## 1
Amino acid sequence: MSLFRPSVDQLHGYVPGEQPQEPGWVKLNTNENPYPPSPAVVEAITRTAKDRLHVYPDPLGRSFCRAAAEVLGVEPEWIIPANGSDENLTILVRTFTDKNDLISYPYPSYILYETLAEIQGTRHARLRLNADWSWNTRLNRPLLEQTKLLFVPNPNSPSGNKWDAGTILSLVPQQGVLVLDEAYGDFADQPHKLELLRGDKGDRIIVTRTFSKSYSLAGLRFGFAVAHPDTVAAMRKVKDSYNCDALSLAAAEAAIRDQAWMLSNRAKIVATRTRLQTALTELGFNVVPSQANFVWCTHPTRSHEELYLALKARKILIRYMKFPGGVDADAAHPEGLLDGLRITIGTDPQVDAFLSALSEII
Ligand SMILES: *Cc1c(COP(=O)(O)O)cnc(C)c1O
């Protein structure tokens, strides 16, 4: 007999992307930033390491909250930092849902939402998107009406498209909250300004952001959420006391204060993104116009998995992703299986290496 919780026994567990630790890979598989973080980050870490490691950090990370509040134009009480944005997603699940509550999320999107619901043992549901990645609000209405916690990544992953504010507002559950996961928000044409939090439904929307992508700090583990102070207060009750360590708090504060650095990396990535999209289209791929730091593409005839493996044999790592039941079954998708390739925007030399290998293979 198993001693584990039944929900743990049944769990598949989230499978993160491959993280080869040896050098020599062109790594375009987990949406990291190819450029280094601001030099101010390393300075802040060094300074903190010299004299702040023997004492506990501020459990609320207030100095970071003040810096983020200034940059974002909100009050510090609206900010809650976490050990990576993923931790805030976990905290939100624990704050809002019991086992009879429904957690829902678009499908295909970030697979972690489903894993978090399975761990918590709540009811959960996939909300089906149209083949062009738009929302079928009418089809999803019955599930939305029962939803307590809705996760929506915007821009979405793996597709990279972004839904407009009107669509997002129409999704806010009547009896629940919407978590707007803006992990890729900084890469969009019109970067988010938190306007939805100031509107009518603002107290039922929680925005989450990460330092792993636009701020080049995936190795650090830091993210934060922006929400109504009542929500922040409830989330604080649920989190570990010292969920953010002194080094990451200091580093994140330095990073968010250096907007110029982040924006200049963003501009390089957006330029490379345009180039990559054009090149993939010329190679015969269908490419979803991306608002993120990656591109989703499918090929009308070639096996995506074989392309991924052929690239991997050349030490070029991209992400092969498959979503059973992701589309309506038709001639092109006999079992309703949606699959494709997600390519992170690297440096220009990395993207060139990828493109020349891919054109050889094809
Ligand atoms: C990368 C990512 C996150 C996680 O960010 P971390 O801060 O690294 O935990 C959350 N949501 C989406 C959609 C992501 O792609």
## 2
Amino acid sequence: MFLLRLRTLLCLYSLAVGSIQTSESFWKLKPNVLVVDVDVKGVNRVEVPVICGEAYEGHNITWTKNKDKHLEAQGNRITVTVEGWKGANYSCFDNEGSYLNHTLVLAQWSFRKIIRNTPEKGYIHCATNNYGGLFQCSWSWGENRHGHITHIEAIRPDGGSNISCSLDPEGKSITCLDQDYCPYAEELERINLTVYFRSSFVVESYNAKFYIMNIVKPDMVAISRINHTCVEVGYPDSWNTPSSYFPLIFQVKEIRCRKRKKCDCSQLSSIETYHTQSLQLPVSKGKMVCVRAKDEFCNSSWSEWSQYKCKKNRKQRKPKLKML
Ligand SMILES: *[C@@H]1O[C@H](CO)[C@@H](O)[C@H](O)[C@H]1NC(C)=O
Ligand SMILES: *[C@@H]1O[C@H](CO)[C@@H](O)[C@H](O)[C@H]1NC(C)=O
Ligand SMILES: *[C@@H]1O[C@H](CO)[C@@H](O)[C@H](O)[C@H]1NC(C)=O
Ligand SMILES: *[C@@H]1O[C@H](CO)[C@@H](O)[C@H](O)[C@H]1NC(C)=O
Ligand SMILES: *[C@@H]1O[C@H](CO)[C@@H](O)[C@H](O)[C@H]1NC(C)=O
Ligand SMILES: *[C@@H]1O[C@H](CO)[C@@H](O)[C@H](O)[C@H]1NC(C)=O
Ligand SMILES: *[C@@H]1O[C@H](CO)[C@@H](O)[C@H](O)[C@H]1NC(C)=O
């Protein structure tokens, strides 16, 4: 009982709205990548100092822009100009023409073109199917732009977290793991996720802040038959155990399906729905029962609907006699 009460307390937080960060002039996004903010009104020319490498001080260094264009400026330190959104990739070479290093200069603007806003999910949508510390974030690509992820930052502001993210094979989502996440402890601070998308030499950053407990959406429940008046609901395999500490609540409705017509649990039905914690549910013959699940204590999402159609009672098949 104490544990249950603790769980309710842990869930009293709610989702925060995402925000967008800006900073001034230029800054280092990661090794070899500088970002120039061109959002600032009236700023359409920014001078950026670029260095080939500490080790090359005093050497004869030559530079190219985007591989093919040779720059007049020479030496270890040069200044390049970003006009409008025209970032570039600057490479430096020694006096024998051997490649030494490069700096990618990107322009960050405030437009939102690389990925798309969607009515229900916003720009970046994060979800997880349990309290394990693993979560997935997805987005929709904008039109007419070839975008990809150039950098991901995920931290909790207190710093006491170790969150690593990687791009999924399909390239349409990322999966992150909070190594220090503990489902039994209070989640004090939100995860601050910033994803940098690049298209050509432009970068856009998107930010989301959330508690894991608010992005939980259980997988679909399993429904199995007990007898012709009763079915049993099973917790998703991916859900945390013990289920007494992580109880789910079920939403149940029965719908009548016309023959040969596709039955869809998400369709609005006038028939009443009810909530229950019971794993055994009564069903009516010929109707379809729809069940979805949600964490009982947290204000998080419902799972997708699971459906089960009670078949009319069939005669039991007679066991075949083996011929001797
Ligand atoms: C290459 O350039 C980056 C800056 O873009 C610099 O931080 C790094 O130290 C350089 N690498 C070497 C080997 O000098
Ligand atoms: C740099 O180039 C100049 C002329 O091109 C040459 O006189 C000088 O010796 C070179 N210095 C080094 C360190 O190679
Ligand atoms: C920038 O140039 C370097 C050196 O040619 C290359 O290794 C790197 O992939 C380039 N980066 C981009 C984003 O074009
Ligand atoms: C979230 O992360 C971004 C990018 O690292 C940073 O600019 C911003 O200040 C962070 N917000 C909080 C509340 O820590
Ligand atoms: C983060 O977790 C990984 C995997 O457990 C570990 O290798 C790494 O050292 C951790 N980093 C920090 C800063 O704790
Ligand atoms: C069907 O199973 C439920 C649960 O085990 C039981 O309560 C009920 O009596 C059974 N009904 C029939 C007709 O066997
Ligand atoms: C639960 O979350 C939804 C959507 O995030 C919100 O509209 C609703 O007000 C929240 N309810 C409570 C009790 O916090």
